[in-house]
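To the wet lab folks,

You asked to see what we're planning to order before we commit. Fair enough. Below is the target structure as tokens, and below that is the sequence we designed to fit it. If anything looks off to you, flag it before the synthesis order goes out.
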């Protein structure tokens, strides 16, 4: 009987130490922005997504800036910019067209503005953001368009 109890407590100890280790790793990694936003996948429904801005007719493309706020173990806030092919002759509705993530960043503050997106020549797009906390992802080329980034200040560069 004592052997069985000892084994059971050993399993409980391993399980608890694993859970604590995962929480600590996530917590420290989130503080230093080493991990992408993972809580939206682990806890569905904990994140609020707002389609903040739509930029149409930039070259032959359309861009959407979506702000996401997650309140779970810690506060996660980030802005994702998606690119769509702006094809007016397409028989597919907009929600069936493929979208591509081109820019993801942490705004760092609620008063920081969204990116300004403008055409930069014939095959170019320019994203301008005055202030960000950190940049998680930048795509340099999308659908034959060169994407340039003008970011004023990055508080926590990778």
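Sequence we intend to order:
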């Amino acid at each position: 009987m004592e052997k069985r109890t000892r084994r059971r407590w050993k399993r409980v100890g391993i399980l608890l130490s694993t859970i604590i280790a995962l929480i600590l790793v996530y917590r420290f990694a989130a503080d230093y922005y080493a991990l992408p936003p993972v809580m939206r996948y682990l806890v569905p429904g904990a994140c609020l997504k707002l389609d903040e801005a739509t930029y149409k007719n930039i070259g032959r493309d359309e861009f959407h800036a979506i702000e996401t706020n997650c309140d779970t173990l810690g506060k996660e806030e980030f802005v994702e910019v998606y690119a769509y092919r702006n094809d007016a002759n397409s028989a597919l509705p907009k929600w069936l067209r493929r979208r591509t993530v081109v820019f993801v960043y942490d705004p760092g503050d609620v008063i920081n503005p969204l990116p300004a997106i403008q055409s930069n020549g014939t095959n170019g797009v320019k994203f301008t953001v005055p202030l960000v906390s950190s940049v998680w992802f930048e795509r340099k080329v999308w659908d034959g368009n060169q994407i340039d980034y003008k970011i004023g200040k990055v508080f926590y560069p990778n």
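Structural context that might help your review: Residues 41 and 145 are 31 Å apart (CA to CA). The longest helix spans residues 2-31.

Thanks,
Computational group
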